[in-house]
User: What shape does this take?
Amino acid sequence: MFDKRVLRAYFRQQRDLSMPDFIFSSKAALDILFGSDNNISEIASPQKTAGALSYPEKTPAQSHTAKPTVSIVAKDKQTISSRLSGLKTIDQLDVPVRTGFKSPASQSVSADNRNPESSETFDQKRAALRVLYYEGCTKCVLAKTRKTYVFGEGRADGPVMVIGEAPGADEDDQGLPFVGAAGQLLNSMLAAIDLDRKKNVFIANILKCRPPENRNPESSEIITCLPIIKKQIDIIKPKAILLLGRIAAHSLLSTTDSISAMRGKTHLYNNIPSMVIYHPAALLRNPGYKRPAWEDLQKFQKLLTDLGVYESTKL
Assistant: This one.
């Protein structure tokens, strides 16, 4: 009898091979969207503090260098047995992993040394985001007018999530969030408090598709798209969230307060500390907002310090 995990991996592999999406056609593309496992040690050191993230490393004994022999029998004449014999082992496959599944590498970490908050490994979180990305969304009219589905970008295990409103024209062209003028300003704002979308932040929007002419999202569009950003938060499990602008704040915090009433305070989304600041696009339109935005960023930095984020990620 064959291992059920191998069977599941086989069918996942067949499904992935049949998908037309090119963004995950190489490991390099996957690393660009959700972070590379090569620099995990630069971001978090295992077992440093009680609040530190922990990532198990594969030992040479756990690596499988020998590749299985692939059968040369015609595919239509192969049996399930012969086809399974050519598969890689479960820890070699670059396929989504069930949330409850513990890879051999993660099993080697004792329960006593594992932080409960980081029981899911970087690879598992990235795989879960991959599954969510593949699901896509065509539930509202924006799917018919968009060029690309702007899912998000950053570290799959980022301790900080930055959430905006919706993609603009540049984002719609490139398929990545915050890459236009507002995105460049956001990068500078994050850098001022030692945050970086490639190292310790995951950036996304409430909507995954650009509203025509950059109009404000409609309530029906927000309601339709909201489950996706909520799933992203559930997968990444950030320690803090930075909400950019009124619409992002209203959508996640279920409030109708003005942004002036919300900014400078710590709110909670599913027990995750969250703060609201002006959207970078608003700063470009109204330079007078830059000083209060900087004050809010400093408060967010203090929040991260109080949460131990800076120590746990070696910022």
